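Thread amino acids onto this structure.
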């Protein structure tokens, strides 16, 4: 095998394929709605009253519901003279409850992936508040946290929505992850890319969510060859949503939100990683074979070019012989 083919093959083999697991947050990784159970009471607001007013505000003004609760939060906190800063949200985030097994989940999944030759990356795609998730104990596990967030005044007080993530615009983040266009304002997310150019192929993406607001992402991931998983609360055992999601073709699998090594979710994700690893090994071998056949293709096209020439120069003849030498195996027809 020629030096250049060997180098090309070594380069192909040294690439570690990537996969992404994208999680909704509320009721997927955490049993609660983050604003309802931590943030709103912490600001001495009545939770039911807060949501009733904010949802009514959305209806009355044809507003996005997320923009409505963000607006409501700023108005209410100002009225009660409570400063809501990024640090305040981070502090509240520390108290967010997580489902059983979540803290140890990421390392176990990453280790399993790495044993199969796959780099696993984790992403949050949530309509909840980014600053709260950033404060939670598991925040460092995520390559990116995509969620609603505030714009802060120079003295650090929340004063305007910076991002409002709702169930339909959640899908843009799947494209961002696949294309490696991570910044929320990067318009390159709409650039056309071939499968080979993708940062993470769509078939290597898993989306995990719990409800109807996850449907656009579940559908998108599934339709592009990835995997969608629905989860339900292990204690409440309320499976109505996942039964419907599965029956309507939104998800491929469902499991209780038990993230321990014994949970079904662990088995499903391990099997998917195995599947992705097998597909990636075959993809690598196909690429290696393309590299090995390249010298022959080069030789044949040079030969065809020479046949068109009226006079064959000695150095062309030598180059042709050189190209032939680089071809592996017997290429003379019997
Ligand atoms: Mg949810």
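Threaded sequence (334 positions):
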């Amino acid at each position: 095998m020629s030096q250049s083919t060997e180098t090309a093959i070594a380069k192909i083999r040294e690439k570690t394929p990537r996969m992404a697991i994208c999680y909704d947050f509320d009721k997927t990784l955490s049993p609660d709605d983050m604003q309802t159970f931590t943030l709103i009471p912490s600001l001495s607001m009545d939770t039911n009253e807060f949501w009733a007013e904010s949802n009514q505000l959305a209806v009355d003004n044809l507003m996005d519901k997320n923009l409505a609760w963000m607006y409501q939060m700023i108005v209410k906190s100002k009225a009660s003279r409570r400063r809501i800063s990024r640090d305040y949200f981070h502090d509240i985030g520390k108290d967010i409850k997580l489902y059983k097994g979540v803290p140890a989940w990421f390392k176990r999944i990453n280790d399993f992936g790495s044993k199969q030759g796959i780099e696993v990356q984790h992403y949050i795609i949530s309509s909840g508040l980014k600053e709260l998730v950033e404060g939670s104990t598991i925040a460092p596990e995520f390559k990116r946290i995509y969620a609603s967030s505030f714009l802060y005044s120079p003295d650090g007080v929340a004063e305007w929505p910076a991002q409002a993530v709702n169930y339909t615009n959640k899908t843009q983040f799947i494209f961002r992850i696949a294309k490696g266009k991570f910044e929320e304002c990067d318009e390159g997310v709409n650039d056309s890319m071939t499968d080979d150019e993708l940062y993470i192929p769509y078939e290597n993406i898993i989306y995990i969510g719990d409800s109807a607001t996850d449907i656009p992402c579940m559908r998108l991931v599934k339709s592009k060859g990835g995997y969608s998983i629905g989860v339900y609360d292990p204690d409440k055992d309320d499976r109505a949503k996942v039964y419907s999601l599965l029956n309507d073709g939104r998800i491929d699998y469902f499991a209780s939100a038990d993230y321990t090594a014994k949970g079904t979710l662990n088995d499903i994700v391990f099997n998917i990683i195995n599947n992705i690893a097998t597909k990636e090994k075959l993809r690598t071998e196909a690429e290696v074979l393309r590299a090995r056949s390249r010298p022959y293709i080069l030789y044949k096209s040079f030969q065809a070019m020479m046949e068109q020439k009226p006079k064959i120069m000695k150095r062309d003849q030598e180059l042709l012989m050189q190209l032939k030498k680089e071809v592996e195996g017997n290429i003379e027809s019997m």
